[in-house]
Amino acid sequence: MELTKYMVIKGIILCETGLRIGGSKDDIEIGGNDNPIIRYPLTGLPYVPGSSLKGKMRALLELKYSLKTQRSGDPCTCGNCLVCKVFGTHKAAESRLGPTRIIVRDAFLSPKSVNEFKAANQDKGIFYSEVKYENMVDRNTGKAGHPRPNERVPAGTEFAFEIVLRIFKEDNEKDMLDFVKEGLQLVEKDYLGACGSRGYGKVRFINITLDNEPFDL
C-alpha cells in the first residue's frame, strides 16, 4: 500500500454543558472526590483523551449504519466496512484494509481556558473543575437522598483537538473525509464522555481547519 498524503483537521471542542471523562481513583486523598475526572499527571489540567473522541465517533457511526455487534456490544469486526477501514479492524479474523486511517490526538486545554482556570484557581480555589452533586429520588416519598459528587469540566471550557487522516493510493479521499465529518456531526448531536442522558457532555466543534484552511462540518 502506498501512503499518498496526510489530511489534518484541527479545531476547538467547546463544552456547552459540563463534561465528564473519568480518571483514576488511585491517588484520592481522604475526603477527596471518589469520582474524579482525567487529568494530565504533570500539570493536573483536564484533557480529552484521543481514545474518548475516536471511540465515540466510531460507536455512533456503527449505530447509525447497524454495524455494531448486537449481542456482545463490541465494535464491528467485519474487517470490510468503512468504519473498519477508517477506525481500525478491531480483532477482525481477516482483513485487507491495511492500516487504520484515522489518528485522533489527545485534546488539551486551549490557552484561553488555561488562563481562565488559573484565574479561578487563584481567586476561588477552584482546581480546574467543578463538582456537581446528584441524588436518587425515592419513588414513594419524592424525597432526594444518597447525594453523590461527580467532578466535571464546566461549561465554556475549550479543548484544542487534532485529527489526522491518512490517505492511501487506493482510498477514496472524499468518502473518508465525509465519513470523519459525519462522525463529528453525530458527536455534536449526541454527547461526549459520561452521563450524557443527565445533561453532561454536549459539545460543539468550532474554528475548524483542514490543512490550515477553514473547514465546515
What this model shows, in words?
Keywords: Antiviral defense, Endonuclease, Hydrolase, Nuclease, RNA-binding. One of its GO terms (molecular function) is endonuclease activity. InterPro entries: CRISPR-assoc_RAMP_Csm3, CRISPR_Csm3_endoribonuclease, RAMP_III_fam. The protein is an alpha+beta fold. The chain is 24% helix and 27% strand. It is built from 4 helices and 9 strands. Helix 1 crosses helix 4.
Helicity, as a percent range: 10-25%
Mean pLDDT: 86
| Poorly predicted segments | 27-33
How many structural domains? 1
Strand content: 25-35%
Summary, kept brief:
This is CRISPR system Cms endoribonuclease Csm3. It is globular and about 60 Å long.
